[in-house]
Amino acid sequence: MLHRALAPARLRAWLLQTVTWPLAVLMSLPGAGVGGAPALQLQALAPGVFVHIGQQLALDAPGHDDIANIGFIVGTRCIAVIDTGGSVRVGRALLAAIRQISPLPICYVINTHVHVDHVLGNAAFVLEHPKFVGHAALAAALANSRDFFLQQYPEDLDQPPSAVQIIAPDIAVASTLQLDLGGRRLSLKAWPLAHTDCDLTVLDTSSGTLWTGDLLFRDRLPAVDGSASGWLTVLDGLARLRVARVVPGHGPIAGDLPLALQPERRYLRALIDGVHDELARGDSMQQAIVQVAAVEQPRWLLWDGTHARNVARVYEQMEWQ
Amino acid sequence: MHAHSVSQPVSQPWPQARVAVLACLLLGFGGEASAISDGQTPSSGAWEYLQRQFYPDRSLGVLDENFMSLEAPANTPDPAATPLTLHFGTAAVGHIRQIRIIIDNNPSPVAATFDLPSGARVAELGLRVRIDRFTSVRAIAETTDGRFEMRSAWVNASGGCSAPPSTLAAGTLGEIRFRPSPDARSMLISIRHPNNSGFQIDPRSGEPIAAHYVSHMRFSSAGQTLLEADTGISLSENPTLRIGSDQPLPAPIAMEIIDSADAHFTGSWNGAVASNVATSTAAGAGGTR
Predict the structure, then answer these.
(1) Do A320 and B238 touch (CB under 8 A)?
(2) pTM assigned to the model
């Protein structure tokens, strides 16, 4: 089926592995991929490292299943997929794009966390027989989200929507894990409570490419679904990594990691400090939503809704600290 | 049991019958409301039923925003803890007898009933509620001269009643925190209580969680009761109450609470300079038996 090797694809894969690439070569791959599914547009970041940049859209907007940065890394033996998009359709388009690049087996599908825009495409990869990989807390988080996904995003699953399409990890990462793709090693790290309770990063040690998942939002307002203060601590840990480039969960690729973390750090700090001051004055949650970090609004996309939820969450948490 | 608390058992517990009656009312409304309200529009179903129950043949004024206004988010930041604030204008302060908060499409629509003693100068009331699905939220005030005023808002939210307990639900049951405003005219009160709705599932065991909620509150300032409230399962986890006045609220501020398991809790704030002074104690379930 999809494993069928196509000569041009094989040639292209060889080129990708051997030719020295300039950074961020844009590759447009329109038209039908293998199996008839349209292929996602990819950006090649380094030899064997490909990303599809998601659109900056709201979670209920048309096209909401294609908002996360997703991609894959090609070794000499096999391929690892990193996040699968917000629908089985997008997952299939990612698979089609992979098959335009390489016929190698997909040995791992890694999910950086539980959110719908990163995991609902998993089902598209089942017939490739990969090992699904995630944070040790991902399985429980998916179990808690399953009903919500089925109720809110039935159109993003194959019809009829079913819980079996929401696929939990086979391999749970409690702290760190090394994955060998042949000729290159991925270094996975599970982080404590931050954006969510199941954030996982992937570092391709060959190219120095760090996939942060949603531990890094660029341009799009970060959504706090875990702990803002925990997230700041995790950002300190991330900033110590030496990497050549960063693939954020949302927004453009960055070269300088500490620099790329700064806007998010500034927002989270403003959020925490602002809520702290609101509580010290005995202000209501509604006052806090209006007043906290208001200066940040023009600096971010998709502020409305997300900021209010962030303030509410941090307010509820800090009430009892 | 709570080393840092000032023990202050409630000396005059409210009649037990009152709590029991309230629970029956809540359950009764729950059944009726959900039977009636399927597919309703903002002004039909549960509300029409409740209006007949509580306000038969009453005209509900809705005109003057300066007299009273209801602040509610059109899109809630948290369906399980949607903030609502009622503001009372100069003409209303000191002239309100009762305020009822009704969430039309909740399984238990009557979220809270506040009773104000004569002359209580309440200018603002804030609380956080569970919203089960898209709904009208209403505040109906009865004035001391027998008039009724209603304000309503439409809130987009779903799943607030069945949202699983958060990790924040843990902690010392019945702990009460006080946060006064700098001008001392308002007080934010946070109550540590799971306020389980009865519609939640324990995500670990898959078992339903029994309803366990704050059923009554009494707030006083310098020994004078400023309000009492009958409350139910529509209050959020860790309920909050924010009370504002048009004049400083003199210390000591005291809060007395009864929950649906008949546990009594009290907390007080003595006007210490440092904010966030919290004292509370649990008389414990069955403490009055």
Answers:
(1) yes
(2) 0.85
